[in-house]
Amino acid sequence: WPLPTMVPLAQTLALLAMTTATAVMDEVPMDMAPNSFDDQYWGCRDKMTAALPALHRSELQQNSLFAQAWAQARAEWQKRGSRVSPLSSSDQAIALMAYTMDKPAYTVTTPLFETFNTAVREAGYSRWQYRNKFHFKVLHFLLTDALATLRDTQGKRCRDVFRGVSGKQFNVTYGKKVRFGQFTSTSLNKTVSEGYGTDTLFQVTTCYGVDIQHVSFNPREQEVLIPPFETFKVTKVTQDGDKTRIWLHSNGTYSNYNCEWLRGDSMGTPSEG
What we know:
3-stranded antiparallel beta sheet, toxin activity, glycosyltransferase
């Protein structure tokens, strides 16, 4: 048992730890995510699908995380019966499985979706950045294509969803137009979302996010996946102590890029996208 004089010390250390944890809360500006790679592949889905096998082989060699995640996702998909419908290809199904495997066995660092989304938020800085540094071109296309396929199947409808975030506070302005600029996981179930954090809670009306729970690694999470290119209007922001709540309403889409891979290589020098 600790001595009586040590109890106040323990309490002080505990309070100090809590204060430190509060102090390191990341403040994140939320804007139109100008550096996001936001290709919607309008008018070129068939050509991209045709280019996929060679590009896929190349990226499996260049990106070990993607290669390991893909192999594990394919095995899991086969274990669950190799279901494709309502998707249009096995590659779409495996891509969604890989993306939603939040704690895969192949890595002790970060899951695929975290590394992938960090890359998505930066790859649109320039054409050069996308072509030479972004080794998730296949995954980006397959997820975008899968969401478009599911949206056509499910019908073009809007959904009210939630997203909870821990350790981050987002700086937003009422009335402002914003994008997440990445593939963003949300849930139809508020309680599920709060399990991921309550420092910031988004309440989102999305019209391009798609219900993927039946093709997800974690169907119980009732996930709706929002693409990088959907835009939102900030309709309300509240602050309660260190807790932030943000309401967003779909405001259409916006993309800086379209069919970028099929445009061919440039002169090899960075240029604004």
